[in-house]
Amino acid sequence: MARAALSGRLIWRAATVTEARQESPSARTLVLDVPDWPGHLPGQHVDVRLTAPDGYSAQRSYSIASAWRDEKSATVELTVQRLDDGEVSPYLTDVLEVGDQIELRGPVGGWFVWREAQRRPVLLLGGGSGVVPLMAMVRARGLARARQPFRLIYSVRTPDDVLYRAELPRHVRDDPGFDLYLNYTRKAPEGSPNAPMRVNVATINTHGWPAEFEPDCYVCGPTTFVEATADILVALGHDPKRIRTERFGGTS
Amino acid sequence: MNRLDGNAMAGDLREIFAFDVTAAEYTCAGCGAAEAIGALMLWGQEMGRVARCPHCDDVVLRLVRATDRVFLDVRGAVRLELPLAGS
C-alpha cells in the first residue's frame, strides 16, 4: 500500500527546450520535451522551478497551452508572459534558449480542466495571458473534433498583445461551433466599430451563452478580471457551481 | 499580496498525496458549504499557503513547507469527498 501511494506522488523532472516561439512582444511559447510525460488534460498546469547557483530557488505555476495528442507525445508547450518585475518569467521569456533545461513538475490540477465527456456548451473568458489554459481547451476540442459549442471571449490591451493571433482564426474557420470575440481594453484595431473598454455585462450578454443553456464557464486572467467577470456571470444568472476560475499572481 | 485559487496548490498537494486533492470537495467546518478545493481562496507562496472558504472566509487548509518536511493543517474541513479514478 505505502509503496503504491509513494509511486503515485509527483516528482520534479528535467525538461528540455526544443523550440521557442515569440507570441507577442512580451510573451513567448516554450516547447518542452519531458521524458515519460504521462499526458495532460486541457486546463492543467505545471510548476516550474529555477535554482540559482547559490541554491536559492523560485517556483511558479504555468498553464499548459498545448493539447495532448497521444502516448507517443512527450511535448508540452507553455506560453509565458513577461512580468517586468518578475523573478521567473523574464528568465523564461528572454534568457532561456533552445537546448536549455528547466525543472518541471506536473501535470497538476483536476478542477480547472475541460473533459471531452462534458456535454454542455462552454464559455471561455480569458484576460491577457489568461487565455493560455483556454487555448489548450480550444486545441483539444479541435483535435478531438468535438461538437460541444465553444465561445471564447478574449480580452487584451492592444492588438499587439493578442496571443495565438494566427492560429485562433484558423480554429474559427476549421472547428465548427467555435466562436471568438476579441475585446480590446486600451487600443482597438484600425477601423474597429467598438471603442476600447473592459469586458462588461453587455460584452458577456452579447458574446457569451445565455444562462439557460447552463454552459460550463472557465474564467482565467488577472485577479481583477476574474472577479469582475465571475460577478457578471453570476449576475446574468449563471450557476456559480458551473463557473471555474483561475487567477494568476501577476498584476493586470 | 496576490490572491490565487486553490488549484494553484495542486502541485504542492500532489507531492504529498497520490491523488489530485484540488478536484476533491471539502465541507467547511465554519459554514458547512461544500466546494471544490480548487475553488478555495489562496494566499502565500510555496513556503507557506493559507486557503480560505470563499463562502465564509474561514481558514480551511494551511500548508507549510520546511527544509525537510511539510505541515498540513486541515482543521477547517470536516470532510473531503474524492472522486475515484475512472469515475
Give the helices and strands, then pairings.
The complex is a heterodimer of chains A (about 250) and B (about 90).
Chain A: H1 2-7, E1 13-24, E2 27-33, E3 45-51, E4 57-63, E5 75-81, H2 89-95, E6 101-108, E7 122-127, H3 131-144, E8 150-156, H4 167-174, E9 178-184, H5 201-207, E10 216-222, H6 223-235, E11 243-248
Parallel strand pairs in A: 7-8, 7-10, 8-9, 10-11
Antiparallel strand pairs in A: 1-2, 1-6, 2-5, 3-4, 3-6
Chain B: E1 4-5, H1 10-14, E2 25-28, E3 34-36, E4 41-45, E5 48-52, E6 59-65, E7 70-73, E8 77-81
Antiparallel strand pairs in B: 1-4, 2-3, 2-8, 4-5, 5-6, 6-7
Q: What does it look like?
A:
Chain B: This is DUF6510 family protein. Chain B: It comes from Paractinoplanes rhizophilus. Chain B: InterPro entries: DUF6510 (IPR045423). Chain B: Pfam families: DUF6510. The complex is a heterodimer of chains A (252) and B (87). Chain A has 252 residues and is α/β, with parallel strands linked by helices. Chain A has helices at 2-7, 89-95, 131-144, 167-174, 201-207, 223-235; strands spanning 13-24, 27-33, 45-51, 57-63, 75-81, 101-108, 122-127, 150-156, 178-184, 216-222, 243-248. The relative contact order of chain A is 0.16. With 87 residues, chain B is mostly beta strands. Chain B has one helix at residues 10-14, and strands at residues 4-5, 25-28, 34-36, 41-45, 48-52, 59-65, 70-73, 77-81. Chain B has a 5-stranded antiparallel sheet with strand order 1-4-5-6-7, with no helix packed on it. Chain B has a 3-stranded antiparallel sheet with strand order 3-2-8, with no helix packed on it. Chain B is globular and about 35 Å long. At the A-B interface, helix 1, strand 3, strand 6 and strand 11 of A face strand 1 and helix 1 of B.
